[in-house]
Design a protein that fits this description.
Elements: E1 4-6, H1 18-26, H2 40-45, H3 58-75, E2 78-80, E3 92-96, H4 106-123, E4 127-131, H5 146-155, H6 165-170, E5 183-188, H7 197-205, E6 208-213, E7 221-225, E8 232-239, E9 246-254, E10 259-267, E11 273-279, H8 282-285, E12 288-293, E13 302-304, E14 312-317, H9 330-338, E15 342-347, H10 349-353, E16 359-363, H11 370-381, E17 385-389, H12 392-400, E18 420-427, E19 449-453, H13 460-463, E20 465-468, E21 474-481, E22 484-489, H14 504-519, E23 531-532, E24 534-538, E25 544-545, E26 554-555, H15 556-559, E27 570-574, E28 577-581, E29 600-601, E30 609-610, H16 612-633, H17 640-653, H18 670-677, E31 680-684, H19 689-709, E32 715-720, E33 732-736, H20 746-757, E34 761-765, H21 779-790, E35 796-798, E36 825-827, E37 840-843, H22 847-851, H23 867-887, H24 897-905
Helix pairs in contact: 1-3, 3-16, 4-5
């Protein structure tokens, strides 16, 4: 019947019994109506106005016949868009491209799998499912029933890998023992061309009748990174089908989920690629984590950025003896090599040391002044990376004395450049040592070294050689100094002495060195064998998930390879400086599939839909209506009062002016909705812009530590105004007291009191601990006294090492801050409210100054005493306070452990 078919058509013969049902229902009248009468005389005079019919009303007969017809049709199993019965009786092989390219329209493939499973179930055929995405341990190809194939289709998800069709073709030999005759083969392709297409097609065609399916009209997108310009990130959006115009947006997000930039794009008809740029300053560009095409659920529409993609700020020290011609200056080649990956600052060395550069390049500088040497050495000790290039000036300086800040001692002598060696035959590069930062790079055969400043052989030189020539002489030496690194190229940064500055290897080597600074001070200590644990993994739909037990740690060399089941795409390493492995390599092809000699057909427009459930539901509703009508006709259900009540309600509500009706609750502000749905730390504005800025930076740094150390993943902190904002959506509130702060209004005080009363934790910080010698001895303390005089607060007591605040996450002796001279006060007795959790903490230890750090994690305020260890204790105190605010007193029983053990002993 066209698109309609039945799974049990013989049940339709029951429709022939409808005339018999008509006769039975027509011969069954309703129950007679009873009349009470006192005597026969009254009975003779009684005239009944309402007569009881002796037959069932015609409209009720029709409704009951319709009810019976619906039941018969529902049991017959009608199906809309059911597949036509196949003529084949052999097995069915379903080849599924479950790749990232298929994720964009995965439901279409699942519908096709369900349709094939339904056909196999009707004819009781064996079904085999072969997936083409690579797997760690492929499941054996075994026959399954149609019902089992449908269950497998429902559970199947796309993988974040490209289809490996050549590997799938090699597995077809497992099916030869089952295929005694020609099989029906359906290849549900992802529409993307790849290696092994013809190989798989030939292997399938030799085993049965092949049909290839592709949703050519469904758009498929891929996001490809381009070479970025200064302060701009460039990407290319590609699509497979250019028949229709399209539009979308590319969104860049930070590590904490913030949206950093958005760029809209539009495709005209016939256009396959469109370039987009995201303009970001250096500080925000270094926070970039994920860039994706909005609304496209595919790993191919996602690009992960890591510490290697961050743009370092490189300082180029001016050399007065260098040429004014750009092509003769080493700075020119360094800029050309690193321009897509770094920003540059060119100035004298003393000015660079006072800036925020993370890498300093000295091009052929021989002697350093004593003051510059000491400052530069201290800068390297703190974690800077110093890159030096040789040349005539450095070679001349090496003749007289050992230059300062050199990884290995240089050899003086009277060679062509005063200590430089000249060969009759240029030398090639040797392979890079495993302990070198350049390990894994290919030594380019076309790079020739013609001159070089030699290093003293043996000793430390051998251990500090990061790159050498075929004859064993060092090309690059390097060494750690404190937390930083010093590296020396024994050739010039220009092509005078070698071809290295003209090669792509020069770019990779400089990027590896700048990468040491991008990762932080500890990066230089990590060798080539260092392994990075999985942090977040990418699914085929482009979502980030937590790694499972099968995910393993990878080395930097493995992260440079294409993804595979053993190298799942995602983020690896530390949260503050992760390494990324993308699902799609940069140079991967993106073309529509085209196989010679094979016809490609589209998927079915609509999957089969069973009509039995809605027919059964309609029959049940008619059955309920029939019961109600039967009760009404028999007089057992008085419907007049109910109808009168409904009519009265309509009359009363009719004249009401609906435009004047007001909602029961006022609309909720967008800020409150966001705060309720997102975990955030909040602070009360002090009125001093400097204090508020420091407070926001401190809470942001504490939020990052919470993300790194605990299960709490807070968004950026929120600034609130207790006069107007709803505090009930926050759990932790920080209140810095500024000198001369005014007492808040009554409404604000009431809002704060309700916040503490109903479960919030308020931390009041006067930040005067190093100056306070008593209550009210500082302007901040005097302001606090005025505020507390107007605020309804409970009795307070000092915090001791038995309080739950010192045990909620870390075991501490006190709530450490930037200074720790005076006690910290908390609610004296919190057992009667807030589930036993203190609602108030008051101190002057300047916690926000201890936590505050910039976006690179560098502290903004020095500690009072104790150095890094004291700052770590302050972070732990902050984590403890936030954990109490969010988790309550679930650890408070640990405080009473000795008493509980004593009672158990008794």
């Amino acid at each position: 019947m066209g698109a309609l078919s039945f799974t049990s058509p013989l049940l339709l013969l029951a429709l022939g019994a409808l005339p018999l049902i008509w006769l039975l229902l027509r011969a069954t009248p309703p129950s007679p109506k009873r009349e009470n009468f006192p005597a026969f005389i009254i009975l003779r005079q009684l005239k009944t106005a309402e007569e009881t019919p002796d037959r069932t009303p015609w409209w009720l007969l029709l409704m009951r016949l319709l009810l019976a017809g619906l039941i018969i049709l529902g049991l017959a199993g009608p199906v809309l868009n059911a597949p036509a019965p196949g003529t084949q009786t052999g097995p069915m092989l379903l080849v599924v491209d479950n790749s990232w390219a298929a994720a964009q329209h995965w439901r279409t493939r699942q519908d096709a799998l369900r349709e094939a499973a339904a056909e196999a179930a009707q004819t009781d055929r064996q079904v085999f499912i072969l997936t083409t995405a690579p797997e760690r341990t492929p499941a054996p190809l075994e026959p399954m029933t149609g019902e089992a194939a449908r269950a497998a289709a429902d559970a199947m998800t796309p993988a974040p890998f490209a289809a490996d069709r050549a590997g799938a073709a090699s597995r077809l030999a497992e099916l030869d023992r089952y295929f005694t005759s020609g099989a029906e083969i359906r290849w549900l392709s992802d529409g993307l061309a790849g290696e092994g297409d013809q190989t798989l097609t030939d292997a399938l065609s030799g085993r049965g009748e092949l049909a290839i399916f592709n949703d050519a009209r469904a758009p498929k997108y891929q996001l490809r990174p381009l070479q970025s310009a200064e302060n701009a990130l460039a990407y290319r959006v590609e699509r497979l089908d250019a028949a229709a115009p399209a539009e979308g947006a590319v969104i860049a997000t930070a590590r904490d989920g913030r949206e950093l930039a958005r760029s809209e794009f539009e495709f005209a008809a016939g256009e396959l690629a469109r370039d987009v740029t995201l303009n970001l300053p250096l500080a925000l560009a270094n926070e970039l984590s994920i860039t994706r095409i909005e609304g496209v659920a595919s790993a191919g529409a996602v690009r992960l950025s890591d510490a290697r993609d961050r743009r370092a700020l490189i300082g180029l020290a001016r050399n007065a003896e260098s040429s004014s011609d750009n092509l003769l200056k080493g700075d020119h080649y360094i800029r050309e090599a690193l321009n897509p990956y770094a920003s540059f600052l060119e100035d004298d060395l003393s000015t660079l040391l006072q800036s925020d550069v993370s890498v300093i390049v000295l091009d052929d500088i021989g002697r350093l002044r004593a003051s510059e040497r000491d400052e530069l050495s201290a800068w390297v000790e703190r974690g800077g990376v110093l890159i030096r290039f040789a040349g005539p000036v450095l070679a001349e300086a090496a003749q007289d004395s050992a230059p300062d800040l050199i990884p290995a001692p240089l050899r003086g002598g009277g060679r062509a450049f005063g200590g430089a060696l000249t060969w009759d035959t240029p030398q090639h590069l040797d392979i890079f040592p495993a302990e070198s930062p350049f390990a894994g790079l290919d030594a380019a055969d076309d790079v020739l070294i013609r001159r070089q400043v030699l290093a003293e052989p043996g000793g430390e030189t051998t251990q500090r050689t990061w790159a050498r020539l075929k004859d064993g002489t060092p090309l690059v030496t390097g060494a750690r100094q404190g937390k930083g690194v010093i590296a020396l190229f024994h050739v010039t940064a220009t092509p005078d002495w070698s071809d290295l500055p003209l090669s792509g290897l020069f770019i990779d080597m400089l990027r590896r060195l700048t990468f040491l600074s991008a990762l932080g001070p500890d990066a230089a200590s990590e060798g080539a064998d260092a392994r990075y644990a999985p942090l977040r993994l990418l699914t085929g739909e482009g979502r980030m998930t937590r790694p499972d037990d099968a995910a393993r740690a990878l080395t930097a060399a493995e992260l440079a390879l294409a993804p595979s089941p053993a190298r799942a795409p995602g983020f690896y390493g530390a949260p503050e400086a992760p390494l990324a492995l993308n699902a799609v390599p940069v140079g991967a092809a993106f073309e529509p599939i085209s196989i010679s000699g094979a016809a490609i057909q589209a998927y079915e427009a609509a999957p089969p839909v069973s009509l039995s459930p809605p027919l059964v539901v309609a029959a049940l509703l008619l059955l309920l209506a029939d019961g109600i009508i039967a009760l009404m006709l028999s007089g057992r259900l008085n419907w007049r009062p109910a109808a009168a009540a409904l009519l009265a309600a309509g009359v009363i509500s009719g004249p009401m002016d609906r435009a004047s009706a007001q909602p029961l609750d006022a609309p909720i502000e967008e800020k409150i909705v966001d705060a309720a749905l997102t975990t955030r730390l909040a602070y009360i504005a002090s009125g001093d812009s400097a204090i508020d800025t420091l407070t926001e930076q401190g809470l942001a740094a504490l939020s990052r530590e919470l993300y790194r150390r605990t299960a709490i993943e807070p968004a950026p902190p929120e600034r609130i105004d207790p006069d107007t904002d709803d505090l009930s959506v926050y759990s932790f509130l920080y209140w810095p007291i500024a000198p001369g702060a005014e007492t808040p209004s009554d409404a604000a005080l009431a809002n704060i009191e309700n916040f503490m009363r109903f479960g919030g934790l308020l931390l009041i910080d006067t930040r005067d601990d190093e100056r306070a010698v008593g209550a009210g001895s500082t302007p901040e303390g005097q302001a606090l006294q005025r505020i507390l005089g107007a605020l309804d607060i409970p009795p307070l007591r000092p915090v001791d090492d038995s309080h739950v605040l010192t045990r909620s996450f870390y075991l501490l002796n006190s709530l450490y801050g930037r200074n720790n001279n005076n006690p910290v006060w908390v609610e004296a007795d919190s057992s009667g409210s807030n589930d036993g959790v203190t609602a108030l903490i008051i101190g002057g230890r300047d916690w926000i100054g201890a936590w505050a750090a910039d976006s690179f994690g560098r502290p903004l305020r020095p500690m009072g005493s104790g150095g890094p260890r004291a700052r770590e204790l302050a972070y732990r105190a902050g984590v403890n306070m936030v954990m109490v605010a969010f988790t309550g007193n679930y650890k408070s029983d640990q405080v009473h452990t000795p008493i509980l053990l004593e009672r158990l002993g008794k």
